[in-house]
């Protein structure tokens, strides 16, 4: 133990006047008694001309000296240095993915994080990164342990995949040049095959949370094309056979219940016939565990979907057209080909007119105002696919080659696919309508004969019509909600936990979707009326089920002088002891009986 | 009410006893210095002119040839002088309450025994002492009880100075009952003065707070009667020494009372004072 302010020891000299007060002869109390006859005959203390007396033992003096000693000691600010994981600047990365919800992993991680920040002093800066599906910094460069504890307390496990690589990049961005930065990664390691992390992680300490427990999950809930049957897939991640009950709910009402037996490390599939109206919420959940086991992760025991609607969209192909487009239109059940003018979606294949509907422009001769033609590019191969783009999910365009394409410049459009700096597929708007722009003629490429074409085409059409009748397979937790509110309307999102989040007017996305479940979007118009928006489901990420664990490799942080030490000041405890002594001293001075009087 | 009916009934079965013959003006139950009209034979003496010739013992005159008259014991009343210290020192710690009760026991014993009970309070409001009510029968008890209850502790005065006037200098003047703390320098003279009368009681009233004072720290003690002050340090050692002095003082008073022919009893609180005083009187032959 060392002292930060040893000069305060000089205040110990105050003990001298304190002792002197006890050596001064006190002024005697005057007490009237029946008689002094028997007092005068004894050897009682005679009055003295000397105003002081030899010090005598006194409990009060001892207590007061003790209080003074404690106060002086506290003023010297004693501290002890203890080995700690904390550095001058510590970034605590806490994994809040779905797997951390299992077996109390996140609670343990939060407990350890709280213990760490409790060791922090004003010599330590702490930043905290929530490594959920969408990593975010929830505390930056704080020397306040209470703020850090509060931030840690707000961490919640979602149902999404961990985004450890992005979270670690985010943490690296918090590194401070003047203070060595240590990364503390509190995680179960996630699934290295699904989201690999560059290992070893430099200047980091991995604190694993590998608690395990039995886990049976609803890994899939889909409806068939008829919309009258749902398929439920269960997975048993344990080494023992598990029995459970599967309940099907439609808009919260129980409509079916069936027992299920899942073999060890296997899947089980059940189908349920339903009469659920389009747009209703179908939920499958595990209930009434039998066999005396307790599921370690409740988040993956439920899955929901929105029953697809039967709205049909009228589509017209204008311009050249091709058999590929016809085949595509025919393959999408909710598209009905009509003539131009009746359609609410127009595919413009090389035409020189822009329709007044959502449009798929294929190398048109009449360009929108926001696209500028710079020339023609030839012999192109796809080199870029926009990452994490739902439209391109599981769509492999790496084998696509294009013989000739327009070389356009469209800064206001979103490039989905490109060959070098030549955009091939763009998303944007034309006169308030959604628009997809292909810079090449389909017949001048091999795209129509690629396996990905029907999927890509169907998704593009889905996007163009605003999502109605979309693939009923919902996205994983953490994927943002995207919606198009009416002009000036205020979006209101109701989360699975029941919270209603009011967004700013004009907002088109909502990213806090780590919790799996149903998200309902409403729009409040200027006149206060509420208009229903899309209802979307975010599912528990399949890769997070089954309590996966992985040991992350790290390289330990470089230790500089003072780094790795936690300085704990003892002054608060000493002051507490001093206050306790004050109370005892007060009690001791008042418990003594009063002198009697008449 | 100082004594309840049950206590008075119990006290009525007892009688005060004088250690010596009494000299009184009225007939009573106690043997007198005077010989006369009683039933118990006492002595002979030669006939003298004026004697009742019916007392001449003719048998002795016939046998011995001398004329003798028979003398008989006579019984006279026992004056009980109840002297209560009402000085300011008795106003502490409820001592006066204890003194009233102890005095009431003796007074009722005397009244119930047909004795002449005389009451005195020292110091008096206008003199050395005040004379209270006198009674010869329990019918006088209400007056004496009222007088005792009305007593207040005030002033300063010496029992020693007042006793000669109350008791006189004759032996056989009856019983003197002193009720007080005797916390005065001339307490030996007081006891001696009471002893002249020919027996009596000293009901020594001291409070528990005087026997073991709960003092704290250094104090300046001021005598309520004399105004003299003494500095004292209430250390455990000095408090122990004080307790020793108090014990020695009480023993010395008791010894002095014995030498003066008085029964001494230390009374410390009103609780059980009736039984305490009665038992003490019976054990020491002052009552039967």
Provide a descriptive summary of the structure in words:
The complex is a heterodimer of chains A (about 600) and B (about 290). With about 600 residues, chain A is α/β, with parallel strands linked by helices. Chain A has five domains: about 1-80 and about 570-590, no CATH class; about 85-210 and about 545-565, von Willebrand factor, type A domain (Rossmann fold, 3-Layer(aba) Sandwich); about 215-305, Immunoglobulin-like; about 315-465, Class I glutamine amidotransferase (GATase) domain (Rossmann fold, 3-Layer(aba) Sandwich); about 480-540, Immunoglobulin-like, CATH 2.60.40. In chain A, about 20% of the residues lie in helices and about 35% in strands. Chain A is built from nine helices and 33 strands. In chain A, the strands form eight sheets. An eight-stranded mixed sheet of chain A has the order 17-16-18-19-25-24-23-21, with helices on one face. In chain A, strand 5 and strand 6 (about 135-140) form a beta hairpin. In chain A, helix 1 (about 15-25) packs antiparallel against helix 3, helix 3 (about 60-75) runs antiparallel to helix 9 (about 570-590) and helix 4 (about 105-120) runs antiparallel to helix 5. With about 290 residues, chain B is of the alpha/beta class. Chain B folds into two domains: about 25-75, no CATH class; about 80-285, von Willebrand factor, type A domain (Rossmann fold), CATH 3.40.50. Chain B is about 35% helix and about 25% strand. Chain B is built from nine helices and eleven strands. In chain B, the strands form three sheets. A six-stranded mixed sheet of chain B has the order 6-5-4-7-8-11, sandwiched between helices. In chain B, helix 6 (about 185-195) links the parallel strand 7 (about 175-180) and strand 8. In chain B, helix 3 (about 95-110) packs across helix 9 (about 275-285) and helix 5 (about 160-165) packs parallel to helix 6. The radius of gyration of chain B is 23 Å and the shape is elongated. The model of chain B has no long low-confidence stretch (mean pLDDT about 80). Classes of the chains: A alpha/beta (about 600), B alpha/beta (about 290).
């Amino acid at each position: 133990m060392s002292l930060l302010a040893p000069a305060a020891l000089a205040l110990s000299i105050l003990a001298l006047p304190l002792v002197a007060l006890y050596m001064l002869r006190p002024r005697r109390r005057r007490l009237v008694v029946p008689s002094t006859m028997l007092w005068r005959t004894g050897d009682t203390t005679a009055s003295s001309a000397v105003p002081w007396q030899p010090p005598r033992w006194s409990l009060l003096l001892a207590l007061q000296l003790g209080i003074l000693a404690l106060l002086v000691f506290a003023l010297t600010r004693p501290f002890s240095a203890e080995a700690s994981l904390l550095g001058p600047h510590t970034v605590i990365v806490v994994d809040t993915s779905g797997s951390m919800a299992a077996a109390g992993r996140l609670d343990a991680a939060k407990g350890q994080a709280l213990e760490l920040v409790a060791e922090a002093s004003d010599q330590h800066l702490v930043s905290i990164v929530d490594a959920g599906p969408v990593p975010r910094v929830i505390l930056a460069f704080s020397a306040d342990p209470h703020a850090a504890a509060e931030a840690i307390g707000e961490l919640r496990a979602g149902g999404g995949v961990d985004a450890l690589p992005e979270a670690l990049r985010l943490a690296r961005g918090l590194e401070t040049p003047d203070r060595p930065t240590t990364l503390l990664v509190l995680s179960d390691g996630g699934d290295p095959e699904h989201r690999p992390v560059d290992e070893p992680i430099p200047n980091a300490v991995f604190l694993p949370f590998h608690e395990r427990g039995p886990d049976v999950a609803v890994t899939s809930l889909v409806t068939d094309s008829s919309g009258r049957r749902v398929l439920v897939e269960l997975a048993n991640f344990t080494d023992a056979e598990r029995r459970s009950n599967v309940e099907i709910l439609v808009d919260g009402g129980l409509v079916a219940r069936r027992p299920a037996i899942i073999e060890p490390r296997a899947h089980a599939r059940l189908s349920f016939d339903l009469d659920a109206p389009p747009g209703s919420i179908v939920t499958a959940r595990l209930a009434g565990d039998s066999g005396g086991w307790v599921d370690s992760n409740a988040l993956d025991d439920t899955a929901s979907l929105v029953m697809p609607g039967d709205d049909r969209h009228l589509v017209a192909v204008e311009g050249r057209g091709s058999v590929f487009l016809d085949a595509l239109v025919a393959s999408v059940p909710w598209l009905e080909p009509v003539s131009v003018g009746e359609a609410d979606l127009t595919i413009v294949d090389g035409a020189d007119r822009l329709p007044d509907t959502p449009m798929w422009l294929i190398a048109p001769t009449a360009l929108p105002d926001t696209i500028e033609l710079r020339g023609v590019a030839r012999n192109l191969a796809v080199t870029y696919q926009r990452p994490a783009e739902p439209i391109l999910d599981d769509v492999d365009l790496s084998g696509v080659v294009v013989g000739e394409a327009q070389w356009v410049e469209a800064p206001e459009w979103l490039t989905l696919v490109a060959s070098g700096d030549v955009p091939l597929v763009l998303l944007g708007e034309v006169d308030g309508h959604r628009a997809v722009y292909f810079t090449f003629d389909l017949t001048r490429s091999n795209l129509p004969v690629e396996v990905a074409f029907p999927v890509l085409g169907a998704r593009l059409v889905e996007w163009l019509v605003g999502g109605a009748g979309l693939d009923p397979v919902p996205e994983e937790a953490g994927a943002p909600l995207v919606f198009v509110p009416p002009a000036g309307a205020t979006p209101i999102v109701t989360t699975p936990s029941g919270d209603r989040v009011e967004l700013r007017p004009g907002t088109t996305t909502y990213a806090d979707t780590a919790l799996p479940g149903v998200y309902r979007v409403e729009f409040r118009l200027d006149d206060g009326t509420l208009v229903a928006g899309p209802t979307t489901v975010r599912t528990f990420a399949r890769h997070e089920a089954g309590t996966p664990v992985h040991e992350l490799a790290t390289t330990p942080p470089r230790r500089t002088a003072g780094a790795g030490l936690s300085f704990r000041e003892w002054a608060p405890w000493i002051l507490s002891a001093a206050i306790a002594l004050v109370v005892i001293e007060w009690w001791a001075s008042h418990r003594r009986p009063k002198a009697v009087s008449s | 009410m100082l004594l309840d009916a049950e206590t008075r009934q119990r006290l009525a079965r007892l009688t005060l006893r004088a250690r010596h013959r009494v000299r009184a003006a009225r007939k009573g139950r106690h043997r007198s210095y005077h010989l006369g009209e009683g039933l118990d034979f006492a002595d002979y003496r030669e006939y003298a002119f004026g004697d009742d010739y019916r007392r001449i013992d003719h048998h002795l005159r016939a046998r011995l040839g001398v004329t003798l008259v028979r003398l008989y014991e006579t019984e006279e009343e026992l004056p009980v002088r109840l002297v209560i210290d009402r000085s300011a020192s008795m106003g502490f710690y409820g001592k006066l309450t204890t003194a009233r009760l102890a005095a009431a026991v003796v007074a009722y014993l005397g009244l119930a025994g047909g004795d002449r009970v005389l009451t005195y309070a020292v110091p008096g409001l206008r003199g050395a002492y005040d004379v209270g009510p006198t009674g010869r029968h329990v019918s006088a008890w209400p007056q004496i009880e009222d007088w005792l209850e009305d007593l207040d502790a005030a002033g300063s005065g010496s029992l020693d100075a007042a006793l000669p006037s109350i008791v006189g200098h004759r032996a056989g003047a009856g019983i003197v009952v002193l009720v007080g703390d005797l916390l005065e320098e001339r307490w030996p003279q007081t006891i001696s003065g009471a002893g002249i009368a020919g027996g009596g009681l000293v009901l020594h009233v001291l409070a528990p707070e005087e026997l073991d004072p709960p003092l704290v720290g250094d104090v300046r003690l001021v005598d309520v009667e004399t105004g003299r002050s003494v500095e004292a340090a209430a250390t455990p050692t000095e408090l122990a020494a004080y307790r020793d002095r108090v014990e020695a003082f009480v023993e010395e008073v008791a010894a002095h009372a014995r030498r003066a022919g008085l029964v001494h009893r230390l009374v410390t609180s009103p609780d059980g004072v009736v039984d305490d005083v009665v038992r003490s009187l019976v054990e020491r032959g002052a009552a039967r």
